[in-house]
Amino acid sequence: MPVPKLQARIQAGPLVMGALLKHENRLRVLNCRYYKYALSTAGSILVQRASSFGGETLKSKEEVSFHCGFRRFAGKPVFSNQSLKSDQHLFQRFLPQSGWSVATVYGPVTFQPASLLLFKPNGQLVASGTLKNVKPDRVVLKRVIITGTPVKVKKRKAVIRYMFHSPEDIRWFKPVELATKHGLTGHIKESLGTHGDFKAVFNKPIKQHDTVCLHLYKRVYPKFPTMNPLSN
């Protein structure tokens, strides 16, 4: 900034200046702990359940603005629960209406402790929290359930249909354990035909009206925002 402009700015009022520490101009994966805010009918911000006041929902991978001190950057975070007993965390489609959640986002390196505010593009404050860590190897898993229907049942054995569509898929998922809505467990025995039917064996006799489920988990990553966070 030219010296005359700087002097004019100082004369106009107080001026706060800051500087970045080493490595703070680099892009990394940030993990932040957030608590959702809610707006009451009077417009005041309350740290209570957002559903009590009709708070807006915030979807994972939706572009929002992060405010950390004098720094502002855009991001598309993914939300996950905070599991203390495991290093694998379950993906959340929306920011929970109450309680803490962890947001994983691409952003500039920030040192702890740091307070962060989360704003929507329209300027509405959605959540506040703190920086948990700068760690790219946090595992966020999305749970997917594939279901099938028993078409032929004989005690502990059954023929399952509508779960797969080709024998290749059956061979690929054969090591995965099966489960039913009535609490049975089993495994795939062999493929039948070319349309995705297969034989399965369970630990107890299965009933015709039961539903067979295959629980799968997929790792989820945050999306890169439209604007580079380092250019904000």
From TrEMBL:
One of its GO terms (cellular component) is preribosome, small subunit precursor. Residues 1-220 form the Ribosome biogenesis protein BMS1/TSR1 C-terminal domain. GO terms for biological process: endonucleolytic cleavage of tricistronic rRNA transcript (SSU-rRNA, 5.8S rRNA, LSU-rRNA); maturation of SSU-rRNA from tricistronic rRNA transcript (SSU-rRNA, 5.8S rRNA, LSU-rRNA). InterPro entries: Bms1/Tsr1, BMS1_TSR1_C. Coiled coil: none annotated. It comes from the Eukaryota. It holds the Pfam family RIBIOP_C. This is Ribosome biogenesis protein BMS1/TSR1 C-terminal domain-containing protein. It comes from Peronospora effusa.
